[in-house]
Amino acid sequence: MQKSLNIDPGKCTGCLQCEMACSYEHTGTFNPSRSYIKVFTFHHEGRFAPYTCTQCDEAWCMRACPVDAISVDMATGAKVVSDDKCVGCKVCTIACPFGTINYSQATGKVVKCDLCGGDPQCAAACPTDAITYVDADWTGYDRMLASAAKSLPSAEATAG
Amino acid sequence: MQHLIIGAGPAGVVAAEALRKADPDAGIAIIGDEPEPPYSRMAIPYYLINNIDESGTYLRDPKQHFADLNIEVVQQKVDKIDTSGKTVTLGDGSSRGYDKLLLATGSHPISPPIPGLDLPQVHSCWTLEDARNIIKLAQSGSNVVLIGAGFIGCIILEALVKRGVNLTVVETGNRMVPRMLNDKAGGLLETWCKNKGIDVHTSCSVDAISDAGNGQVDVSLSDGSKLDAALVITATGVKANTDLVADSDINVDQGILVNRRMQTSNPDVYAAGDVAQGVDFSTGNFEVQAIQPTATDHGRIAALNMAGQGDEHHGTLNMNVLDTVGLISCSFGLWMGVDGGDSAELYNADEFQYINLQFDDDQLVGASSVGKTQHVGVLRGLIESRIHLGEWKQRLMRDPTAIMEAYVACTQELSYS
Ligand SMILES: Cc1cc2nc3c(=O)[nH]c(=O)nc-3n(C[C@H](O)[C@H](O)[C@H](O)COP(=O)(O)OP(=O)(O)OC[C@H]3O[C@@H](n4cnc5c(N)ncnc54)[C@H](O)[C@@H]3O)c2cc1C
């Protein structure tokens, strides 16, 4: 069974270890501003919510790409950007309705969660199990995916 | 079942792939008239600066992809369509029958009414062939005049600057990208370009181009300036390629009119992409958007309906992202606002930062931004999901940058452990 990230915002303390680990894995530096997973802070509610790409079935980013630079990693199901092919046109960054594929001025390419090839470092680094990598049955991640998809009429109306 | 697609751009190619997925046994052929494998115009600017070679513009690996999917790709021009006999006639005189036909013929650049446009130093920037001509003439240090600072003009602008030319931009509107950004945001782009040494003339037009004799041309502007140039590029808008259906039972307005299933007035003929006048998400009106994301969405929806599996489309959202020599801007939907709606704005000219949100009641209906690259896609999500923002509207009015927080808070459960 394919695995997916399970995100439980209720357990997140906002420590940002996930952002550190993600940026280190992908850029070689501890720089949360270059992390592909982001922890959003809700001061009023006293809550934190880690958020990243849900590897959605619609794959808006992949469909909008003009040069075939985004493909599915068959092992993990992740939608992965090929740095060799990406020209940095950014059209995927406006096509993705979840805001989870972003342009990196540092590399001139777009970047997104690739599930670290099957060993997501955000999950490994999370001290409170707010982020885990588990069998994809009914995970919080699926809830995240479902509620995100539900919010978009287009995702249903045109589901193939 | 025989599906025939005219046009090998993104709309046609995505449609062919979606048709194959929906119907493993159907015959599928794409007929395109350009002497190249199916490619993406959007990639041309990156070809101009040598970031990629020609093959980097190809939509798919031309050697394998189409053969693997059993999609036939034919390099021919379609000269005629006979909708009663359900056949098309190709440039080589042969003809082909179809059960369902998709018109994905795209659009072509319109020539402004300027004397001298037929000179060999004048090109549009629309096809790979145009790009090859531009590369020859846009040498480092040469003078280049770009007519039009609309969306496409601004995209090429960046590539020309990177090629090291001395660039003059002439735009009849009072600001850059007038159909994508408002005065403030467009003004930021203009200042940014001028700071980078680009000569920008807004509220100005080109009166005439003439042969200067030495391989160069003289360009006279309406503000009295006279320029000499090795190359003039026109980017003054595009028009849908509707000629093929001019005298048929297929209704045409600005583009080929299609319903929410991308079907034309002839039930066996569909249209998609730049050529199609389909429903706009924001207005519910039928409009030609002529953008890449719409072309691929159209292609897929048309294909599903051609295969009898589709649904009615809720409409495509008009949206653009632009990189103007390093300054990134984008716009979505009704960025100019709606009557009686509220708006939130943050403007920092010194930092070249701008964001503008437009609400209808407590729903986001449009947005534009300058200098922002992170999470801009969520503006699409907020608009297309028609989320009622509730208290988040007030929070966004105070801090329009909190778009991601608003989206996460309105769509996710913040606590379920
Ligand atoms: C330089 C440049 C940069 C761009 N950048 C962006 C961008 O950043 N973002 C964005 O959203 N959009 C951008 N665009 C626009 C985008 O490329 C178009 O919206 C997109 O190509 C439309 O796809 P399409 O398949 O509808 O048409 P096209 O890509 O135009 O393909 C249509 C094809 O049909 C062929 N054809 C026409 N008539 C016939 C016939 N009778 N027989 C056979 N074949 C025929 C045409 O020759 C063409 O090859 C850019 C365009 C250019 C030129």
Q: What helical percentage do the residues of chain A reach?
A: 25-40%
Q: How many domains would you count in the coordinates of chain A?
A: 2
CATH class of the largest domain in chain B: Alpha Beta
Structural class of chain A: alpha+beta
Most extensive chain interface and residues per partner:
A-B, 52 and 66 residues
Rg of chain B, nearest Å = 23 Å
Contiguous low-pLDDT stretches of chain B (5 residues minimum) are none
Shape-level CATH architecture of the largest domain in chain B: 3-Layer(bba) Sandwich
Q: How would you state the average pLDDT of chain B, rounded?
A: 96
Could you say which small molecules are bound to this protein?
flavin-adenine dinucleotide
Determine the oligomeric state from the structure. Answer: heterodimer
Structural class of chain B: alpha/beta
The total of helices of chain A stands at 6
Question: Main attributes?
Answer:
heterodimer; A: 160 residues; alpha+beta; Alpha-Beta Plaits; 2 domains; two-stranded antiparallel sheet; 6 helices; 8 strands; 26% helix; globular; B: 417 residues; alpha/beta; FAD/NAD(P)-binding domain; Enolase-like, domain 1; 3 domains; five-stranded parallel sheet; 10 helices; 26 strands; binds flavin-adenine dinucleotide
Task: Describe it.
The complex is a heterodimer of chains A (160) and B (417). Residues 154-160 of chain A have low confidence and may be disordered. Chain A has a two-stranded antiparallel ribbon. In chain A, strands 2-3 form a two-stranded antiparallel ribbon. Helix content of chain A is 26%, strand content 20%. With 160 residues, chain A is of the alpha+beta class. The radius of gyration of chain A is 15 Å and the shape is globular. Chain A has 2 domains: 1-52 and 117-145, Alpha-Beta Plaits (2-Layer Sandwich); 55-112, 2-Layer Sandwich (Alpha-Beta Plaits). Chain B is of the alpha/beta class and 417 residues long. Chain B has 3 domains: 2-108 and 239-306, FAD/NAD(P)-binding domain (3-Layer(bba) Sandwich); 122-234, 3-Layer(bba) Sandwich (FAD/NAD(P)-binding domain); 326-411, FAD/NAD-linked reductase, C-terminal dimerisation domain (Enolase-like, domain 1, 2-Layer Sandwich). Helices cover 23% and strands 29% of the residues of chain B. In chain B, the strands form 7 sheets. Chain B has a 5-stranded parallel sheet. In chain B, strand 13 (206-211) and strand 14 (217-221) form a beta hairpin. In chain B, helix 1 packs parallel to helix 7 and helix 9 (391-398) packs antiparallel against helix 10 (403-411). At the A-B interface, strand 2, strand 3, helix 2, helix 3 and strand 6 of A face helix 1, helix 7, strand 22, strand 23 and helix 8 of B. The structure holds flavin-adenine dinucleotide. Flavin-adenine dinucleotide binds at residues 6-12, 31-34, 41-42, 44-45, 77-78, 104-106, 125-126, 152, 155-156, 241, 244, 273-274, 290-293, 295 of chain B.
